Amino acid sequence: MTPLQVFPASSMNSPTMMPPLSDVGWRFLAEGDSWFTIGALNPLDNANLLLALRFERSAIAVSCAMPGDTLTHMADFGRDPMFAALLAGRIQRPWDGLLLSCGGNDLIDALQVPPTGHPPALRLLLTRDEWGDASLGAARYLSEPGWQTFVGYLQENLRRIVDLRDAGQSRGAPIFLHGYALPTPRPAPAGPGLGPWLLPPLRAYGIPPGDHEALARLLIRRLGELLAACAADTVRFPNLHFFDTAAVAILPAQPDTRGESGDWANEIHLTRAGCRKLAAAWAPAIEKVLIG
Q1: Rounded alpha-carbon distances, angstroms, from residue 69 to 35, 37, 54, 127
Q2: Are strands 2-3 and 54-55 parallel, antiparallel or unpaired?
Q3: Is residue 270 classed exposed, middle or buried when 0-12, 13-18 and 19+ CB atoms within 10 A define those classes?
Q4: Which is it for the CA torsion 22, 27, 30, 36, positive or negative?
């Protein structure tokens, strides 16, 4: 198996750093969030899903990913000009596929909407007086109107990326999305001022601590179902492929821990070991599409 070679997008503008794209079997353009960059923000534990990928053929990925990126940022081609330029602009080339890490930061951003001053359609969580019946489990805390707003937002921005792909030399090239592992809300930041991300909004809405883990996992599962539904809609999202991570055995973090726990470096980022587990399952799924 050959490790994926990852080059920053800036290398495409440098004669001395230009990746040897003509010398490899597959060429990918990557865009995404911290799961494609330095998830743990710790040089000694560089959790990067791209760097964990291994293929039967040699492969290079030119990465435009940045920590904290959301789909809005990815689809704002003025904000991220290199992605647009490499895909359908002045320095475009035909890519064998696009690797996309998206949805996680969007979900986290949506959770940060405070419980006051916003109607249910503009937040993902319900206030205490809005909670549903206890028989609903963790779903009793979710705002269904807010979730539908989130669905529309994600679909619109993902569609913009599909349209950009089809505007250039990579028209119709496969887009590969990954799912996220199931996190445990806990006081485990990546560094000073960098998280935690899930625990604060759950506390702000008064969600009982005993339901934190179930609610976080419900949200991640719903995100996976949403991305899978997009991939299944071949009319709106042609040649979009979603890899469901649900079957990958990622060790969960223990509640209330503050550092590395299980396969997690912090609250929402995997360790290198966790990334290797996910990558070992995702890479064959990518190859199956490319070879088929």
Answers
A1: 10, 10, 24, 28
A2: antiparallel
A3: buried
A4: negative
- Spatial distance between the Cα atoms of 18 and 22, rounded to a whole number of angstroms: 11
In 3-state terms, what secondary structure has residue 145? Answer: helix
> CA-CA distance, 17 to 222, in Å (whole number)?
41
What is the reported pLDDT for 77?
Answer: 59
Tens digits of residue pLDDT in 73-132: 677 655 678 999 999 999 999 999 999 999 999 999 999 999 999 999 999 999 999 999
Helix 212-232 and helix 144-165, axial crossing angle in degrees, nearest 10: 40
Task: Kindly report whether the peptide bond that precedes residue 196 is cis, defined as omega within 30 degrees of 0.
Answer: yes
Amino acid in position 149: T
Distance, CA of 215 to CA of 264 (rounded, Å): 18
Q: CB 1: neighbour CB atoms within 10 A?
A: 9
Judge whether residue 5 has pLDDT over 90.
Answer: yes
Task: Please check the confidence at residue 232 and state whether its pLDDT lies above 60.
Answer: yes
CA atoms within 13 A on the CB side of 2: 14
Q: What is the pLDDT of residues 31-82, one digit of tens each?
A: 998 899 865 444 444 578 999 999 999 999 999 988 777 777 677 655 678 9
Report how far residue 106's alpha carbon sits from residue 93's, in angstroms, rounded to the nearest whole number: 29
Mean pLDDT of 158-162: 96
Residue 91 host element (H or E):
none
**How many whole angstroms separate alpha carbon 88 and alpha carbon 220?**
32
CB 199 within 8 A of CB 187: yes
To the nearest whole number, what is the mean pLDDT of the chain? 92
The tally of CA atoms less than 13 A away on the side-chain side of residue 108 is: 24
